[in-house]
Design goal:
Helix content: 25-40%
Structural class: alpha/beta
Mean pLDDT: 95
CATH topology of the largest domain: Rossmann fold
Number of strands: 11
CATH superfamily of the largest domain: Vaccinia Virus protein VP39
Largest sheet: 7 strands, mixed
Strand content: 35-45%
CATH architecture of the largest domain: 3-Layer(aba) Sandwich
CATH class of the largest domain: Alpha Beta
Number of helices: 7
Strand order of the largest sheet: 3-2-1-4-5-11-10
Low-confidence stretches: none
Number of domains: 2
Length: 248
Amino acid sequence: MTYDEKYAKYYDRFNEGKDYVKEVEFVSEVLKKFGANERKILDLGCGTGLHEKEFSRRGYDMMGLDLSGEMIEIASERNPKCKFVVGDMSDFCLNEKFDAIISMFSAMGYLTENQQIEGFFNSVKKHLKENGLLVLDVWNGLGVMNELPISREKSAKIGNLKIVRRSFPDLDSKNHINKVRFNVKIFDGEKLIEEYDENHKVRFFFPQELKKYLEDAGFELLHLCPSYDLNSELTEKHWNMILVARLK
C-alpha cells in the first residue's frame, strides 16, 4: 500500500469531528446571499467526497476534482450520482462551466508557489459562468502568525486497529508555508504493526494578498469572514478564513 493509498484510506477517520453539514449549509447560505441561483458547482480539492454527499442531498449538481486518484475512487463510490475527475487545481480543463466553484478545507493551501496560485485563478475563471461565484476556505496568515503551529496528536479506531497520528510543524514564515511531518503508527491492540511518515506543505494567505490575486484574475472580492461565520469580522484570532468573489 502506497503513502497516498494510506492517506486516503484513513483520511475520513482523522476528520470525523469535521462538521460537513454545517459547512455545506454555510456555502448554501453564501450562494443564496450573493445571487448564485443555479445549482451547478465544482469542488476543487474535493477529497473523499463528503461535501458532495451533503450538497447532493440538497439538490445540487456536483463535480469534484482532486489530485489523488485514491481520494477520487472513494468519492465516486460514495456519490454515484456525482461526477469526479483526477486533476490539478492549478491547471485544469473540464470543458464545462459552473454557477459556482468552491475549495474547502484549506485545499488551496497545497498550492505553495505563486505561479500555481495564478494558474488556479486563471483555471477557475475559465470554468465559471458570467457572474459566477468563487468560495474559498484557506488558512488565515493573520491567525497563523498570531498563534503559531504546534505539535498535535489524533487517534482513530478501525475495528481492532488503533491509528495514532502526531504532527510536527516547521513554520517557514517568509514563504508563508507550514511544513508538517505526520508520524503515523498503527496498533493491533498494544502491538505496533506499522509506522510511516507523511510530509505536507500548506500555504497560508493574508487577506490583501488574496484580494490582489483575485483582482488580477478579473474577480471582485465580495466578502471576507472567518470560517464558517458569515456575520463575523475576520481578525488575527481566526486560523481559517472564507473569501467570496464574483467573476466580473
